Amino acid sequence: MVASTTTVRRRSDRGGDYDLSLIDLDGGARMLSRVEGVAPADVRIGQRVEPRIVELASGPAIGFVPAHEPEDH
Fold this sequence. Notes:
This protein is mostly beta strands. The chain has one domain. 0% of the residues lie in helices and 47% in strands. The protein has strands at residues 2-8, 18-24, 30-33, 49-56, 59-66. The strands form two sheets. Strands 1-2-3 form a three-stranded antiparallel beta sheet, with no helix packed on it. Strands 4-5 form a two-stranded antiparallel ribbon. A hairpin with a 2-residue loop joins β4 and β5. The two termini are 24 Å apart.
């Protein structure tokens, strides 16, 4: 779950803005990482996320994507 989030601003020729979030893991630990797959402004505190291996310019890293919320029936 996203505990804290900020947007890192970069020029578009350097890859553009990206999210940097503090993620509360289910086991109680916290991890600083990125939430990918959504605009940085759309990442919200309390949002559930799932881990993914993402490719960065520096190589593979652990990132997160928004979790799929169960649908109400």
